[in-house]
Amino acid sequence: MKAVSVIIPAHNAAATIAGTLASLRSEAAVIGEVLLVDDASSDGTAAVAEDAAARLALPLRVIASSCRDAGGARNLALAQTDCPWIYMIDADDLHLEGGLRSLLSRSEAQPRAEMVVGAFRRRTKGEHHQFKLPYGYTATGIANASAYLEGQVRSIAVGSALVSRRAVGETRFPTALAYDEDTLFWARLMCRAPLAVITQPVMTYFVSAERSDDRFTIKPAQRFLAWRHALRQLTDCGIAKSTLKTREGLVALKIARVHYARGDFATAARFLAVAKAAPKVPSDIWRCMRYQFKLAVRRRFSISHVLLQSA
C-alpha cells in the first residue's frame, strides 16, 4: 500500500539530494509520492533530483518555491499531500533502510497513534556518530507537548517521525524563524496526536555545529524576540505559560553559551540573564551558575589586563 507522502525541502542541495533520494529507494513499496520543494535553488537541485528519481523509480513531484525558509517550504508541501501518512526529511540527511516500514508497523500495532517517533543517528563533520534513542514519551496531549518543550524528552529530528495527515490537518510550521521552528510544530501536533515510539534508528542526521551556532550570532536579540513571539502562540493549545517560560530559558541559555564560546561576553551576559529568570530544572540551574561564574572571571581578567596595559 502506498501509504506515505515524503516531503523534502531543498535549497541548493544538488550535491546531496541524490543521496537522500537513494536512501529512500528501499521504501518504494510504501511511498506514494515524494514532494521536493525546490526553494529558490540556483545550482540545478530540481534537475538532479528528477534524474535521480527517474533512475530510482521514485514518484517525485517538484514544487517550486521562493520563500527561502525550511518551514515555509514544508508548509507548501503539507498543503498538497495525498497519502494518509507524512514523512519529512531534509535534503542533506539519509533515511535508513526499513525505517519507514518499522514506523508504519508500529502505527498498525498501536492504531490510536497518529505520530510515531524513531531513534536516529547524529553525525558531525568529523564522522562522529551519536545514537539518539527516543525516551520519555509516555504521556499524550498537552502533558507530552509540555515535557517536550521543557527538554524532559528526546528532541525529534526531522526525518525520525511519521505523522498522520489527519492529525496534521491545518497545523503548519512557523515561518521566518532562525531556529526551533520544528520544535514548535511538533509541540503543537503533540497536543492532540497520540504518540508511539520505536527504538530502531530510522535516519542519519548530519550536523554542522558551526552552522548551527551561526544561527544564534546574527541579530541575536531580533531573532530571539521573533522566536519568542511564535512560542507564546502555543498558549492557544492550552500549554501553560510557565512551560513556555522554561523553553525561553533553555533557548536563551543555548544562545548565551554560543556567544560566550565566541568571546562576545556582553551578549552572553544578556541572554544568561533571560535564562536565569526562567523556571529551570536543577541541571539548568547549575549551567546558569557555571556560566555566570565564567563570565565574572572573564570580566575580572579583562579589567586586570586593561589596568596592566595602562600602568
Give keywords:
311 residues; Spore Coat Polysaccharide Biosynthesis Protein SpsA, Chain A; 9-stranded mixed sheet; Glycosyltransferase family 2 protein
Describe this structure in words.
By secondary structure, this protein is of the alpha/beta class. The protein has two domains: 4-207, Alpha-Beta Complex (Spore Coat Polysaccharide Biosynthesis Protein SpsA, Chain A); 213-310, no CATH class. The chain has twelve helices and nine strands. The chain has helices at 17-24, 45-56, 70-78, 99-109, 142-149, 165-168, 181-190, 209-214, 220-232, 241-261, 265-277, 282-310, and strands at residues 4-10, 31-39, 60-65, 85-88, 94-95, 115-124, 129-132, 161-164, 195-207. Strands 1, 2, 3, 4, 5, 6, 7, 8 and 9 form a nine-stranded mixed β-sheet that branches. A hairpin with a 4-residue loop joins strand 6 and strand 7 (129-132). Helix 5 packs antiparallel against helix 7. The longest helix has 29 residues, at 282-310. It starts with a strand and ends with a helix. Residues 303-308 have low confidence and may be disordered.
